[in-house]
Amino acid sequence: MSDGPASVGAQLRAAPPDRLPEVTAEHLRADHAADRVEVLLGDLSLSALWPVLDPEGPTGGLLEQRCFGSQLPVVDPRPDGPTKILLPLTVWGDRLGVLSLETTREAGQELTAELTVIADELAMALRTADKDTDRYHRVRRRQRLTMAAELQWELLPGRSLNGERFRLAGALEPAYAVYGDHYDWSVTGDRLTVTVLNGHGDGIEATLLTAVAVNAMRNARRAGAGIVEQAELASDAVYSRHGGNSYVATLLLEIGLGDGAVEAVDAGSPKAMVAHDRDIRPITLEQQLPLGMFGDTRYETQKFQLEPGDRLLVASDGVHAAAPGGRTAYGVSALLTALRRTRLQPPSEAVGTVIRGLREYHDGLDADDDAVLVCLDWLR
Fold first, then answer.
1. Would you say the pTM of this structure is higher than 0.85?
2. Close Cβ partners of 209 (under 8 Å, ≥ 6 residues apart)
3. What residues does the PPM-type phosphatase domain cover (predicted)?
């Protein structure tokens, strides 16, 4: 027998990156009398949980979906057999999937706590291993990505992020064929930077355009620059490559996590709104030129204030301006209806609810544009 739940971390660090589920399963069988161990990962659209150890096995059912959605362990005792235990696989709020097992041990708080440590170690290892193996990428992809989508997914920071004072999530749609829409974020100390972008055009050219802008803003941000310099460097980079023939619409936000003060650079089509209880109000900002439209463009910040419990939402034009079949734009009223349905949901669930509402609004028609939605809860 090994040294307990903490030892699995050392085992995972010593294991090949593509063998993490097997190492975890062996540890659980040896130390916790576990059987029927499975690691289930969410697909790119987070519509189902898919097995890794037995790729031909069933997808996650209602219990697995409950664990994934609630982000809490689920214990399912059976009077005539082993107890089934499900644990969320999550890193800093980024939901990866669910660890499932059956055990004959008594399923009390002590066991659940031990298994939670193991699940947390596995989640961190899985996230790190993604850089060195394609195994988990293949499980999450239920169809082949376009080249543009491949580039976009590699650029994303994650799908959700939690901190002491905030909950944050983003959604990108359609998952397998996105083009120029994108989001980015970074937290350092008490400052959270959030960016939503929409590259001009279609296909891989729009993706490459967005990639230039994202990396230019990251370059400035990582050098300690504020959002004005981030926007200006990105604008200069896009203009130097395209000469004003292509541009990137962008909304950059820097949120003070201590006081809720927000500085914004509005350089295009993404729209922001704030929800508090059932009240939803748009954030009106003076729109400046999109990035890369002209050379040496200079930007200014504008400010607004979040209150404790506020939910900040940012939507690209693929969300708020979607008008399938000539219908009224989704952002006029249907978006507000969808947002009100998310009132009791965490951001990681809320973005999915709104995106599903957008799909329903298209009523079977193909979307004309890709879409991004970012949701932030400021907790203070």
1. yes
2. 180, 199, 200, 201, 238, 242, 246, 247, 248, 292
3. 168-378
Counting every residue, how long is the chain?
380
Q: Residues 115, 167: one domain?
A: no
Q: Is residue 1 scored above 50 in pLDDT?
A: no
Domain assignment present for residue 311? The answer is yes
Using CA atoms, how far apart are residues 83 and 75, in angstroms rounded to an integer?
7
Residue 1 is assigned to a structural domain of this protein = no
Query: Do 125 and 96 contact (CB within 8 A), yes or no?
Result: no
Contact status, residue 206 vs residue 179, Cβ threshold 8 Å: yes
Q: Is residue 352 part of a domain?
A: yes
Q: What angle do CA 347, 182, 275 make, to 5 degrees?
A: 35
Q: Which domain holds residue 341?
A: 143-378
Across 42-48, average pLDDT: 93
Cβ-contact 142, 43 below 8 angstroms: yes
Residues 349, 333 contacting (CB under 8 angstroms): no
CATH number at residue 260: 3.60.40.10
